[in-house]
Automatic annotation (TrEMBL):
GO biological process: sodium ion transport
Signal peptide: 1-22
Protein name: Na+/H+ antiporter NhaD
Assigned keywords, A-Z: Membrane, Signal, Transmembrane, Transmembrane helix
GO MF, one example: antiporter activity
Domain of life: Bacteria
Length: 437
């Protein structure tokens, strides 16, 4: 008989999420659970400690995440079983289960960093002020553009493109509240599209029809409006958009073509894998390989700026360490599906990898998939390391790596999350649906 345990991580979130997050406890089979303190598995305490140091200490976030991942791995190896078994065999089995997702994430983060540099050097961002309003509505238009791009492109790329444009049109002075707005817009844009976010793609592969997540755009649209307007006003007050492009700037259409080629190959590989070769998608990081194939081929005509990789690698290693640590948590099931649980999942996804949360929800069933897609997608925007889009953007703007500053200046993001959820619930109601197949 499974027992419910209240992980410290979720209890820490209860102050933000209220009863929903406090009730979102993990189910751990007693026969396979390791040591616990007051009913809380010790790996949760270790993970909560790592997240606390990342959020509030001045130690290197990358080193903190790496040492934390190592400590949790060694603990599991010696004293607690992995989901795939105990000891070295369990560790190898778990690594074999996770490596494709981690490799894809690494390849996308590094590849999109090079894509962003191609886009910047195409001079498209420099000429955009000719076509954008020069008051606070200019930053607002950019956030809407990021939202639109993310509906058909991975949210990492959408956030990086948005950050690249912002760096140009705001003279390298981008407000942290606006950076939070870019991440929120990229995550909102992918919430209702099965090709716009990893989590919605997972739902599609598991049998959720594209139309079953489409209504997430009701909440996402409200959330975009709620956070985009104050974020745009913050940015305008901090550093207004440039009124005119520099003289003599010419668009490098070859680099524009390279960006389009990389994006087209990425989208094509994603759609092809999900529609024709879904069974093989877990065998190899095909999506990441497609991005790098496009980069290497296009490098024959325009050399990528390889010096961008060290900085991108630091952010990627940080995120991979957190994702690996999250995958080691003994979370076997979620409480029975309901809208308060879905609301709480969004808050939890701000600090806990949303991929395993989505996998658990799919395994359990009983959710309104549009609500779940919105929660796991947009919820990660509330903290800078809560989503891969935020981590990728922090590589361009290191000043954003502060939970306190992110929450202080990006206050509109959690507000937008709750209001978006509330509006969708009021207009559409909670309607759990079985998967299409």
């Amino acid at each position: 008989m499974p027992r419910f345990t209240p992980p410290l991580l979720l209890l820490l979130l209860s102050g933000l999420a209220g009863p929903a997050a406090a009730n979102l406890a993990a189910t751990v089979p007693a026969a396979t659970a390791g040591p616990a303190l007051a009913g809380v598995p010790l790996e949760f305490l270790l993970f909560a400690g790592v997240l606390g140091m990342v959020a509030f200490s001045h130690v290197s976030t990358m080193l903190t995440a790496l040492w934390g991942a190592l400590a949790i791995t060694v603990y599991k190896l010696l004293w607690a079983p992995f989901g795939e078994g105990a000891g070295l065999a369990g560790l190898l089995g778990h690594a074999g289960h996770e490596w494709v997702g981690l490799a894809n994430l690494l390849a996308l983060l590094l590849g999109f960093a090079l894509l962003a540099r191609h886009f910047e050097r195409s001079h498209i961002p420099a000429v955009l002020p000719h076509y954008m309003p020069d008051d606070w509505k200019g930053p607002l238009v950019l956030l809407v553009l990021v939202f639109f791009i993310s509906s058909f492109l991975d949210n990492i790329a959408a956030a990086i493109i948005g950050g690249t444009i912002a760096r140009s049109v705001f003279r390298n002075k981008v407000h942290i509240g606006y950076l939070a707005g870019i991440v929120a817009a990229s995550n909102a844009g992918g919430a209702g599209s099965v090709v716009g976010d990893t989590t919605t793609t997972m739902m599609w592969l598991a049998g959720v029809a594209p139309g079953q997540v489409l209504h997430a755009y009701v909440a996402a649209g409200v959330a975009l409006l709620v956070c985009a307007v104050p974020a745009a006003r913050q940015q305008h007050a901090y550093s207004p958009i440039v009124k005119d492009a520099p003289d003599g700037v010419r668009v490098d259409w070859l680099r524009v073509g390279i960006v389009a080629f990389i994006l087209a190959l990425t989208i094509g590989a994603n759609v092809l894998l999900n529609t024709r070769y879904a069974a093989a998608s877990g065998l190899f990081p095909f999506l990441g390989a497609a991005v790098w194939l496009a980069i290497l081929l296009s490098g024959l005509v325009r050399r990528p700026d390889w010096h961008e990789l060290p900085g991108a690698l630091r952010g990627a290693v940080f995120l991979l360490a957190l994702v690996w640590s999250a995958s080691l948590m003994p979370v076997e099931a979620l409480p029975p599906a309901s809208w308060p649980i879905a609301l709480g999942i969004g808050f939890v996804s701000a600090v806990f990898d949303n991929i395993p949360l989505t996998a658990l929800a799919l395994k359990q069933g009983g959710f309104d998939w549009g609500f779940l897609a919105y929660a796991v997608g947009f919820g990660g925007s509330m903290i800078w390391f809560g989503s891969s889009a935020g981590v990728a953007l922090s590589g361009m703007y290191p000043e954003s790596r502060s939970v306190a500053q992110w929450l202080r200046h990006g206050w509109h993001v959690p507000l937008a999350y709750v209001l978006g959820f509330a509006v969708m619930l009021a207009l559409l109601g909670w309607h759990p649906e079985p998967m299409a197949h």
